[in-house]
Amino acid sequence: MFCRKPLGANEVIESFPVGRRLAFDSARGRLWVVCRKCERWNLSPLEERWEAVEDCERIFRDTRIRVSTENIGLARHPEGLTLVRVGAPLRPEFAAWRYGDQFGRRKRRAILYGTAGIAVFGGIVIGGAAAGILSGAMLSQSGNLINLWVNARTMVKLRPDSGGVIKLKRQDLLGTRLRPSDDELGFKVQVRKRRKKVWYEGEQAHRFAGAILPKMNSMGGNRAAVQDAVGMIETAGHPEQYLTAIAEGDRFTDRKGVPGYVNKMPTPTKLALEMALHEEQERRALEGELWLLERAWEEAEEIADISDNLLLPEGAEEFLEEHRGKAAATPASAAAGPPSRPRPNP
């Protein structure tokens, strides 16, 4: 199947810099360029595939945003290339390594901003006192003035489906609760604006929790806290299962014994909650494409099987049989770059 549209280019697969979406089957040695306009799968020449298929497999394993069905995997490279992997899915992996740097930078930034803010405010206060403008009473209240300024800021803006904007300040965030729900999501979120408390379910709950948690985790976390958070999600088995489990039970209570308050959770638990929400959001965005890709692959595979058998040079079939299982079973340690396979003699 071929089209006449420009296929674009990529700078990720050096051995095959054609196309912005590549589909590959390591076990069968197939490589297609998928046209982004007509969605047709264009089979690449046999002699140009070997190194490219190896590179695609390696990069797919390293790419953090990926999702798979029984036959098709989809991953997006940061530089814009989309990889479609055909074959048995890889073992699900929670790409938590990237959160260590993210939370670490957040912690350092919060400390830096806090120190700078105190220094600036302190300089103003001391300068005013030296000039005789500020009294001793005002100096003693400087810490309270900083807290008042922080508490008065809008931290999060939520936009409900019903319309309008909910502006949450620091004290409002402390009223956020998670509890179980009977829908597919498995949890609901309570948003408190002053004394008004409203529960949100479904996509709104997921969206609102995803906006609130980064602000509640504004101080980030050290390496130990991040590792503990990763361990919690791995113990649950999947980010979605962790989200459901964290909303259950009578934990994280306030002074009245009311459960489910996010601000009562330990730091690793809140970090894990943010990680799981982020992973679920990315997974849902990718899953919508998988069904269409699987239908397109089935049709493209029939054509590729006929085409490859017609053009197969002598000795290539034995070569494929010998190496069929090796590419699919490439260990994660091969990410450093496996040696290129020899090509069959035409």
Can you describe what's shown?
Helices cover about 45% and strands about 15% of the residues. It contains 10 helices and 11 strands. It has helices at about 50-60, 95-130, 135-140, 140-150, 170-175, 200-215, 225-235, 240-245, 265-310, 315-330; strands spanning about 20-25, 30-35, 40-45, 65-70, 70-75, 80-85, 155-160, 165-170, 175-180, 185-195, 195-200. It is elongated.
Keywords:
346 residues, alpha+beta, six-stranded mixed β-sheet, three-stranded antiparallel β-sheet, 11 strands, 47% helix
* Uncertain residue segments: 332-346
Q: Count up the helices.
A: 10
Question: Biggest β-sheet: count, sense, barrel?
Answer: 6 strands, mixed
**Distance N terminus to C terminus?**
24 Å
Question: In percent terms, what proportion of residues is strand?
Answer: 15-25%
Outline type: elongated
Question: Count the strands?
Answer: 11
Compressed to H and E, one letter per element, the order equals EEEHEEEHHHEEHEEEHHHHH
Helix content: 40-55%
Question: What is the residue-mean pLDDT, rounded to a whole number?
Answer: 78
Radius of gyration: 27 Å
Strand order of the largest sheet: 3-2-1-6-5-4
Which structural class is indicated by helix and strand composition?
A: alpha+beta
